[in-house]
Amino acid sequence: MGRRRPDTPTLEEVAARAGVGRGTVSRVVNNAAGVKESTRRAVREAIAELGYVPNLAARSLAGRRADAVALAMTERDWRLFGEPFFAETVHSVGDALAETGVQLLLTLIRTDDERKRFVEYARGGRVDGVLLVSVRADDPLPDMLAEARLPTVLLGRRSGAERVAYVDADNTGGARDAVAHLLGRGRTAIAAITGPLDMYVAQCRLNGYREALERAGLGGGPSWTAEGDFTEASGRRAMAELLARHPDVDAVLAASDTTAAGALTALREAGRRVPEDVAVIGFDDFPLARDTVPQLTTVRQPMAEMGRAMVRLLLAETDEHRAGSRHVVLPTELVIRESA
Amino acid sequence: MGRRRPDTPTLEEVAARAGVGRGTVSRVVNNAAGVKESTRRAVREAIAELGYVPNLAARSLAGRRADAVALAMTERDWRLFGEPFFAETVHSVGDALAETGVQLLLTLIRTDDERKRFVEYARGGRVDGVLLVSVRADDPLPDMLAEARLPTVLLGRRSGAERVAYVDADNTGGARDAVAHLLGRGRTAIAAITGPLDMYVAQCRLNGYREALERAGLGGGPSWTAEGDFTEASGRRAMAELLARHPDVDAVLAASDTTAAGALTALREAGRRVPEDVAVIGFDDFPLARDTVPQLTTVRQPMAEMGRAMVRLLLAETDEHRAGSRHVVLPTELVIRESA
DNA sequence: CTGAAAGCGCTAACAT
DNA sequence: ATGTTAGCGCTTTCAG
Predict the structure, then answer these.
(1) Which residues pair with A18 in a beta bridge?
(2) Which of A13, A71, B88, B194 has the smallest number of CB atoms closer than 10 Å to its CB?
(3) A-chain residues within 8 Å CB-CB of B2?
(4) A39 C-beta less than 7 Å away from strand D
(5) What angle in degrees, to the nearest 10, is found between the helix axes of B171-184 and B200-215?
(6) Alpha-carbon distance A65 to A69, whole Å?
(7) How close does chain B come to A205, measured CA to CA in Å?
């Protein structure tokens, strides 16, 4: 056996010190019912005196939870790291987890090798489950995890027929509402800057955009959309393209806050006024964007609820409760700041 | 005991299937020497057939490494998440770790409660060590970890008398070189936008700036410096302040790439030309900034080496090798793109 | 309400 | 070269 840390007291030592059995100490540590208050206090005292901290490896091994969940993201989405969407996701999941005493572990997966290693890590019992953020439709990771029978929850579906548990917003409805709003304000030359079209979320928003236009008998055609990747730079580039193709554009639906910010820059560079001349609506509505472009109309995703829902689904899978549906779609909300 | 996963084979089952003892299987799994090639192959086969994956909790408990290290960051530095510096750090640490088969876990620590929980998690034996990024001078976390005798390595010192193992760049020297370069180009009205002055890295860069000026007999005075926080927004604001105080400024040393980008924006807004009119030097030199402001002169930190050094120090502490110094200061390098 | 005892799956020493 | 054995520290029945 490897060296032990002689400065790390064990449950047994606490028990000896408190003059009780190990089982009792275990019960106290885990806040289990059925321990006389005086005993409980004595044990607590011994714990404090010895500076006892439970060995988590032993605890996992003995069969309880790992008390940790992983939030994994793949390399292609690495830039999400800098996006408010990701920051907000981590925050909301962290908040939801805080109450449960579960440690949140972020992992970045870049190569297939790392993908494999991560699955082994997870299968090894070091996490209770895995949260996956905005996975590409062709990413094998969710299936690898499912095959390993690991509780998994996706933020964002990979397709309309997603079988892994997921939490998503009503992207189609949100886009439809946004375009309907613009139409209601008299805009008719409405363009769209999409997200990466190999992501279902981007397809949904594009569909919502098209549906709203079709209902108004205004089919836009492919030249009215440009693909971006949620970043500001892509929004700027896409807007420039759209302006070149359609100088008469009078409104734009952008894939995200950040994309919208990029679009605004391009519009200003082209000497267009926002929103008088061209109205812009973006998805997300994060504080960052709100500060930067206060006049922006946005479609809000209920981030806090999404985090809560993800954690709820994951814990349900962990407990094998199967409590309710494994799929959650939350409503979006149009946030109007200024007449568009 | 809680439910076991009947679909998760154990070492023992592999041993039975391969017709060998558990010890042999363990040796094969851990690539230990001293196993006949034919046996090794037989065991590998059994492993594949059963889909065996080692239980990491059991492995840790039995005394070996946790095969994971945590990279922790505190809430105040949350915005670093979006900064290339942080992304680059994670990448370089990830690369250095990839060769060793150790899982990198990122953890965000927001409250004192989470700080405590994280220390318990780490003390619980779930990580071999902790990497800390740009800690504030007054953060208790490093000391909490040291007290728990957990291998810890800081990226960036908290002070000149740092006792915890660290990796840092020669910030004073880098700033001095940068200012010397500017002086050599005939610039004399040189301002500085610093990082948060409760961070040692910011103090060092400020000192380097002052030293270089003093050597040239050009003491700047406090009105020539403005404090930022490494973000672009702070750089823009600080530059505006400096311009208001000293319209005759002809060069600026910025705390980071990103800060420099903000300063450039402010300069452009004020109608100044860069670098003809005002030369700007930023720290870091990341691809992002290079793309955005190609004419920027920068002081480069050797990120890849920093990652390697952090991992090396951490593993040395883990192995109790105490191989060499626990403190590493790497040289910076002035990257000149255009005459300043 | 509490103590004793049986593992959890693995590693590392010790035999063979 | 390989099998056997003794724990690692904890949770959880099962008796008292």
Answers:
(1) none
(2) A13
(3) 63-64
(4) no
(5) 30
(6) 10
(7) 26
For strand D, which nucleotides have at least one atom less than 7 Å from a protein CB?
A: 1-14
- Which residues are B300's β-sheet partners? B284, B333
User: Contact B87/A81, CB-based, under 8 Å?
Assistant: yes
Q: How far is B209 from chain A (nearest CA, A)?
A: 30
Q: Which residues 85-124 of A have a C-beta within 8 angstroms of B?
A: 86-87, 90, 94, 98, 101, 103-108, 110-111, 113-114, 117-118, 120-121, 123-124
Number of helical H runs and strand E runs in chain A: 13, 12
Within 10 angstroms of residue A38's Cβ, the number of other Cβ atoms is 8
Answer for A12: CB within 7 Å of strand D: yes
Residues in chain B with CB shorter than 8 Å from the CB of A60 are 57
List for chain A the helix, strand, coil content (%; round to 5): 50, 15, 35
Optimal mutation site among B106, B147, B286, interface A, most CBs of chain A within 10 A: B106
**What are the counts of helices (DSSP H) followed by strands (DSSP E) for chain B?**
13, 12
Q: What share of chain B is helix, strand, coil (3-state, %, to 5)?
A: 50, 15, 35
Q: Are B228 and B195 in contact (CB under 8 A)?
A: yes
- Partnered with residue B104 across adjacent β-strands are B69
Q: Give me the phi and psi of B41, to 5 degrees please.
A: -65, -40
Chain B residues near residue A120 by CB distance under 8 angstroms = 53-54
- Nearest CA to A167 among A67, A319, A286, A317? A317
> What residue ranges define each of the domains in chain A, with the CATH number in brackets?
11-52 (1.10.260.40), 68-169+304-330 (3.40.50.2300), 171-300 (3.40.50.2300)
Q: Are A133 and A80 in contact (CB under 8 A)?
A: yes
| B70 to chain A: closest CA residue | A105
Pairing of strands A297-300, A333-335: antiparallel
The pLDDT profile of chain A, 340 residues, written as one tens digit per residue, is: 333 445 689 999 999 999 998 999 999 998 888 888 889 999 999 999 999 999 999 999 987 678 899 999 886 666 666 677 888 888 899 999 988 889 999 998 988 989 999 998 998 889 999 999 878 888 899 999 988 888 999 999 999 999 899 999 999 999 999 999 999 999 999 999 999 998 999 999 999 999 999 999 987 789 999 999 888 889 999 999 999 999 999 999 999 888 998 899 899 889 999 889 999 999 988 776 666 666 778 899 898 999 999 999 998 888 764 445 677 888 888 777 665 5
Nucleic strand D within 7 A of Cβ A27: yes
Is B78's Cβ below 8 Å from some Cβ in A?
yes
∠ Cα A225 A230 A232 (to 5°): 95
Contact B275, B337 (CB under 8 A): no
Residues 6 or more apart whose CB falls under 8 angstroms from that of B301 comprise B169, B174, B283, B284, B285, B330, B332
A28 beta carbon < 7 A from strand D?
Answer: no
- Whether A61 CB is under 7 Å from strand D: yes
Residue nearest to nucleotide C8 (CA to C1'): A62
Determine the protein residue whose CA lies at the shortest distance from the C1' of C5. Answer: A23
Residues of B in contact with A63 (CB under 8 A): 1-4
Q: B18: closest CA among B37, B44, B43, B47?
A: B43
Phi, psi at residue A79, to the nearest 5°?
-65, -20
Contact B169, B301 (CB under 8 A): yes
Q: What is the pTM of this model?
A: 0.86
Alpha-helix runs per DSSP H in A221-302: 232-245, 257-269, 287-292
Q: What is the dihedral of CA A167, A173, A178, A183, to 10 degrees?
A: 170
